[in-house]
Design goal:
Number of strands: 36
Largest sheet: 10 strands, mixed
Helix content: 10-25%
Structural class: alpha/beta
Distance between the termini: 66 Å
Length: 697
C-alpha cells in the first residue's frame, strides 16, 4: 500500500456532508499498525538523510497542514508559554518519533509523574509535531534532559517548517545522573518569526546506539507582552485590490431553510457576495436536473433544487460557484447544467468547479481510476471544452492541494518540475502537467483549508493558525509556475471551503466567539496574499451535541455546528461568525485597496484598507481571552480627522446573546482622539473596526 493511502486511512473520511442529510457518517479509520508503518517509513528516510526523506516529508507536510491536530489546554495569563510536554504531550503536540520511546516513563522524572524515555539506535530520535502555527509570539525552545546512568549521548535538535527541516543545534554530550535545562533560541533553529512551524526533532548524531536518556517539561517560551502594542499603517502604497469573492458562504442542496422568507434579508444583512452550491462532497453524487443524490444505488431527493437556490442567490445579489459532478457524473451533464443556468434561465452564474476534493479517498469517485490526477485532468479537458461551448464567458476551475508529493495515489504519470528538475507524483503536479500537455489551462484552481480535527480543538493555537495562508498560497503559486509555465500566471487561486474543524462532529469552538475571531483573522491574512476568493463552510448547519464541548474551550454554547446560522425545525440562532461577517461588511469590499500594517505583538492582529469612498478601515483583533491591550496607532500618508466611528464585536455582545440582557449585535461607538497618531484600547477576545475619514471629508 502506498504511503499516501496509509495517510488517507489515518485521516478518515473528511467532512462527509451526508451528516447534514441525516445519514450515517462513513469513516475510514486506520489501525495502530498502519499508523506505525507510516511513521517508521517516514523516519527511516529521515535518519538516512536521503532524498526519499524530502519526498516523504513533503507528503506529510500537506497532510498535517490540511488536517491539523489540536488538543484542549487551559486559558493562561499573558504572555503564556506554550507547553509541549508535561506528564504527557499537550496543546496539540503529537508524537511522530522513530526511536524506541515511552512518553509515560516513571523511572526517572524531574517533576510530576512521567517523563519521556528514549533509547535510540544510530540516528534515531523523536519528532514532536504540531499543526503549522506562527512563532512570532515565542522566543525559545526549552526542555530538561537527563543522561541516564551512563550519559555521553550526542544529540541534534532541529526545527521544521511546513515539513522541511531547518537549522539544527548539537547539544554537548549528556551528563549522567542529573537533569540539565536546555534553552535554544528559535533563531538558532531557523524557525523564529515564521508562520509555519510544525515540529521539532531530537535525534542521535553519533551514529552508534545510545543508552537511554530522558526528557521532561518541554515548552516554547513566550515573548513578553509589551506595555503598549504599536500598530503602524502605511497609507502610501496599495498592495492589491480587494475582491468580493473573499466574502462568501457555502450552501447545500440539503438546506431547506434556504427558501425561508428571511433568507434574503439575512444574506443582505451581512452583505454576502458569493454562494457555493450544491455543497462539498455531495457535489460528486448530485444530479442537478432532478435535485437527487445517488450513492451506491441509494437515491435521495434534496430539499433545495437548483432553481430555488438560484432564485435566492440572485434576490440577495450574490454571484455563485457551482460544483459539477465529477465523481459520478459526466461532462455532458455538466454542460447541460451550464446551458440551463445561463442560457435557458439567464442566471449568469460565472464560476464553475469540476468536482470537490477529488484527490481524497473520502470523495465518491466511480471513474475507471478513482482519485487519479491524470484521469481527472484528461476528463477535465472534456468538461471545460463542453461547458464553455455552452457559455464562453464562464470561468472553470480545477481541484488542487498543497505539496508536490501529496496524494501520490499513482506513480505511472510522473511530473517533472521545470525549475528544479525533480520528479513528483503528487496530485497537483501530475494534474497540472497533464493539463498543460493537453493544451488546457484552467481559469482558477480550487483549494480547501481546514485547521484541526474533531476533538482536538484548542483556542490559543487556532487563533495563531491563520498566518499559514501566506505559505499555502505561495506553495500553490510556485506549482502553477513550475508545471504550467507562463500560462499559469493568469490562473487565479480560490479557496471555496474554509473553517476550523475538518470533520464532524464539531464541538463548541465552532459556534462560539473564538471561531468568529479566527474567521476575521483568516480574511485579514487572506488579504495579504493573492487569494481571490474565500468561502466559509457553511451558511447553516444543524446543531451537533456530540462534539468537543470541553470546559477548556471558551464559550457558553454547548453544541457545535459549521454554520454561521443554526438550522433547526423552528427558528435559527445567529452565531458569532454571523456577526463577524456583518462587521467585515463595513471593513472591505470590491475595489478597496489593501494597505501594509504591522503590529509588534502576536496576540494583536491588525489589517487596513483604503476604501473607494476615501475612508480608511482599520481592523484590530485581540486574541487574548483576558487581557485588554493599549495600542498606539500610527498612520502615514493619510490624515484622519479626530472623530472616527468604531464597530466592535466581542465578549459583551456574546454575553448579551447568552443572558438576553443588552444587544448581541455589533456595537457602534465614536472616538474623538483619532489622528495620524492616537491611542486605542482593544478589549479581550474582540474584533474592532475603526472607520477613519480624512480632515477634508
Amino acid at each position: 500500500m502506498k504511503l499516501t493511502k496509509w495517510v488517507e486511512l489515518f485521516v478518515k473520511s473528511r467532512r462527509n456532508k451526508s451528516l447534514f442529510l441525516g445519514k450515517k457518517v462513513k469513516t475510514l479509520r486506520s489501525s495502530n499498525r498502519k499508523i506505525n508503518l507510516v511513521k517508521n517509513r517516514f523516519w527511516k528516510s529521515f535518519c538516512k538523510g536521503s532524498r526519499t526523506f524530502l519526498i516523504t516529508l513533503s507528503c506529510y507536510a500537506l497532510f498535517l497542514n490540511c488536517h491539523a491536530f489540536f488538543l484542549p489546554t487551559r486559558a493562561a495569563s499573558i504572555p503564556p508559554n506554550l507547553e509541549i510536554y508535561n506528564d504527557s504531550l499537550v496543546n496539540g503536540w503529537v508524537d511522530y518519533g522513530w526511536a524506541n520511546r515511552d512518553y509515560s516513563d516513571t523511572s526517572i522524572v524531574r517533576n510530576g509523574n512521567n517523563s519521556i524515555s528514549i533509547t535510540a539506535a544510530p540516528y534515531e530520535g523523536i519528532h514532536l509535531h504540531h499543526a503549522a502555527f506562527d512563532t512570532s509570539g515565542y522566543t525559545a525552545l526549552t526542555f530538561w534532559i537527563h543522561g541516564g546512568s551512563v550519559g555521553g549521548q550526542r544529540l541534534l535538535v532541529g526545527g521544521i517548517l511546513s515539513g522541511k527541516g531547518q537549522a539544527s543545534y548539537e547539544l554537548s554530550p549528556l551528563l549522567p545522573g542529573v537533569w540539565q535545562e536546555v534553552t535554544i533560541s528559535l533563531s538558532k533553529l531557523g524557525v523564529a518569526d515564521k508562520p509555519d512551524l510544525d515540529g521539532f526533532y531530537i535525534k542521535d548524531v553519533s551514529g552508534t546506539s545510545s543508552s537511554t536518556y530522558y526528557l521532561d517539561n518541554i515548552s516554547l517560551t513566550a515573548v513578553e507582552a509589551p506595555s503598549v502594542v504599536d500598530i503602524n499603517v502605511d497609507g502610501s502604497q496599495i498592495l492589491q485590490k480587494v475582491d468580493n469573492r473573499l466574502f462568501g458562504l457555502n450552501s447545500g442542496a440539503w438546506e431547506s431553510s434556504f427558501t425561508s422568507s428571511d433568507n434574503t434579508s439575512l444574506l443582505k444583512e451581512i452583505d454576502n457576495k458569493v454562494l457555493r452550491f450544491p455543497g462539498g462532497s455531495l457535489s460528486d453524487i448530485y444530479h442537478w436536473s432532478n435535485s437527487t443524490t445517488l450513492e451506491k444505488d441509494e437515491t435521495t431527493t434534496q430539499p433545495l433544487p437548483f432553481d430555488k437556490f438560484a432564485k435566492g442567490a440572485i434576490e440577495a445579489g450574490n454571484q455563485a460557484f457551482i460544483t459539477v459532478n465529477y465523481g459520478s457524473g459526466t461532462s455532458a451533464e455538466a454542460a447541460k447544467w451550464v446551458r440551463y443556468s445561463n442560457k435557458t434561465k439567464g442566471y449568469g452564474f460565472k464560476y464553475w468547479e469540476i468536482g470537490n476534493e477529488s484527490y481524497g479517498s473520502w470523495e465518491y469517485d466511480t471513474n475507471e481510476r478513482s482519485h487519479d490526477p491524470y484521469t481527472y485532468a484528461v476528463k477535465a479537458k472534456n468538461y471545460i471544452s463542453k461547458m464553455k461551448a455552452q457559455d464562453p464567458t464562464i470561468k472553470v476551475g480545477v481541484v488542487v492541494t498543497t505539496g508536490e508529493d501529496s496524494y501520490a495515489n499513482y506513480t505511472d504519470h510522473p511530473a517533472t518540475n521545470s525549475r528544479t528538475g525533480q520528479i513528483h507524483n503528487g496530485w497537483t503536479p501530475v494534474m497540472l502537467s497533464t493539463l498543460k500537455s493537453l493544451d488546457i489551462i484552467p481559469d482558477f484552481v480550487i483549494y480547501h483549508k481546514y485547521i484541526n480535527g474533531p476533538g482536538q480543538e484548542n483556542d490559543a493555537t487556532l487563533l495563531q493558525s491563520a498566518q499559514s495562508w501566506t505559505v499555502d498560497i505561495a506553495n500553490l503559486r510556485a506549482m502553477l509556475s513550475d508545471y504550467l509555465g507562463t500560462a499559469g500566471d493568469g490562473v487565479e487561486i480560490v479557496a471555496t471551503e474554509h473553517n476550523s474543524v475538518w470533520s464532524p462532529p464539531t464541538g463548541k469552538q465552532a459556534t462560539n466567539l473564538v471561531n468568529g475571531l479566527f474567521l476575521a483573522d483568516s480574511i485579514g491574512q487572506a488579504l495579504q496574499t493573492e487569494l481571490k476568493g474565500l468561502l466559509w463552510w457553511l451558511m447553516r448547519a444543524t446543531p451537533e451535541t456530540d462534539g468537543n464541548n470541553s470546559a477548556s474551550l471558551y464559550g457558553w454554547r454547548q453544541h457545535g455546528g459549521y454554520g454561521i446560522l443554526s438550522q433547526q425545525n423552528t427558528g435559527y440562532e445567529r452565531y458569532p461568525t454571523f456577526y463577524i461577517y456583518k462587521l467585515l461588511s463595513k471593513f472591505a469590499r470590491q475595489g478597496d485597496g489593501v494597505l501594509k500594517v504591522k503590529s509588534n505583538y502576536a496576540l494583536v492582529s491588525a489589517y487596513a484598507v483604503k476604501r473607494t469612498n476615501g475612508t480608511l478601515s482599520l481592523l484590530i483583533i485581540n486574541k487574548s481571552p483576558t487581557e485588554a491591550f493599549n495600542t498606539n496607532i500610527s498612520i502615514s500618508e493619510y490624515s484622519p480627522s479626530k472623530t472616527a466611528t468604531v464597530y466592535s464585536y466581542g465578549i459583551p455582545q456574546d454575553e448579551a446573546a447568552r443572558t438576553g440582557i443588552g444587544s448581541p449585535d455589533i456595537a457602534q461607538t465614536t472616538i474623538s482622539n483619532a489622528g495620524s497618531s492616537f491611542s486605542f484600547q482593544i478589549a479581550p477576545y474582540s474584533a474592532s473596526l475603526i472607520s477613519l475619514r480624512t480632515t477634508t471629508q
